[in-house]
Amino acid sequence: MNALATMDALITEEPDMPRSIDATDYRRISRAIETMVAAVSDGGTPPGLAELAAQAGLSPFHFQRLFKRWAGVSPKQFARFLTLEHAKTTLEQSASVLNAAFDVGLSGGSRLHDLFVAVEAMTPGEYKAQGRDLVIRHGVQDTPFGPALILVTDRGVCGFDFLAGSAARALKEARARWPLSRFVADDKATAAVAAKMFSRNARRSGDVRLLLRGTNFQLQVWAALLRIPPANISTYGAIAAAIGKPTSARAVGTALAANPIGYLVPCHRVLRATGMFKSYRWGATRRHAMLAWEAANN
């Protein structure tokens, strides 16, 4: 594969999306998830509703309501999706689904796959040009998993970076990835992308287009990621085998770390073969949140 020209993949519109996207909600919920993960990681039981609510500074009633609005399930139900046992079981169940998905070149048969995403890769010449003459519109938008810097071009989304630090720092890093491109602040364009990704009406909003810039190997890995349905997970080795390079699991990990488009190119769905969580570019808590959120809404 000299370059990944144009391919199509399907991702999901979740059935129980939050009624509104609020970064404050995620900040409160992420602390609760950290607390639950710490408990279940040690083989214990997750804290009760009263403890989680007190940590969030809310009454049990209001915390439960907030959590269900975000996750679609109660904190107690959500905790089940955070366990190692659940990850291992999901890995086993995902194997046959992913094999079929890779065989047919689609994103699997999940009923949730009803949002069409068109993916285009830059040609080798464009890759070498480092985004010369490309106009990149940028803005920070709230998402169910915290604020994210979104980069949009006329050809599609070229960056989706959850903020681990300041927006200024994330934008500086984005400019370094696209040194010859012209950056223009545009909240309207980036808000439209966030709405398409996380709205209940995403399917009626039109296609989400992605513009990928990477090496041939990275493009192959990212293409494989797009074939993993929500609520399914894969491993480095399975991805390596899927792209015809079964001994390149370590290199697959490097390509995952270089993924510039969070969530839409779902590197969060790739774990170690044991089901254990490894480092994730946008934080372990956020990955736990994404995987459990998808499982809860499947």
Descriptive overview:
The chain has 298 residues and is an alpha/beta fold. It has one domain: Winged helix-like DNA-binding domain superfamily/Winged helix DNA-binding domain (Arc Repressor Mutant, subunit A). The protein has 13 helices and nine strands. The strands form three sheets. Strands 5-4-3-6 form a four-stranded mixed sheet, with helices on both faces.
The portion of residues forming beta strands comes to: 15-25%
- What structural category arises from helix and sheet content? alpha/beta
What's the number of structural domains?
1
- Net shape: globular
Count of extended strands: 9
Helix content: 40-55%
* Distance between the ends: 34 Å
CATH architecture descriptor text:
Orthogonal Bundle
CATH class: Mainly Alpha
Report mean pLDDT, rounded to a whole number.
79
Radius of gyration: 19 Å
- The H/E string reads EHHHHHEHEEEHEHHEHEHHEH
- Spatial strand order of the main sheet: 5-4-3-6
Sheet with the most strands, sense and barrel status: 4 strands, mixed
Q: Uncertain segments of ≥5 residues (pLDDT<50)?
A: 1-19, 104-116, 202-206
* CATH topology category name: Arc Repressor Mutant, subunit A
Question: What is the name of the CATH superfamily?
Answer: Winged helix-like DNA-binding domain superfamily/Winged helix DNA-binding domain
Number of helices: 13
Summarize the structure.
The protein has 298 residues and is an alpha/beta fold. It has helices at residues 23-41, 49-56, 60-71, 75-80, 84-104, 124-128, 167-177, 187-198, 202-205, 216-225, 236-242, 249-257, 284-296; strands at 6-11, 115-121, 135-141, 148-153, 156-162, 182-185, 208-212, 234-235, 270-271.
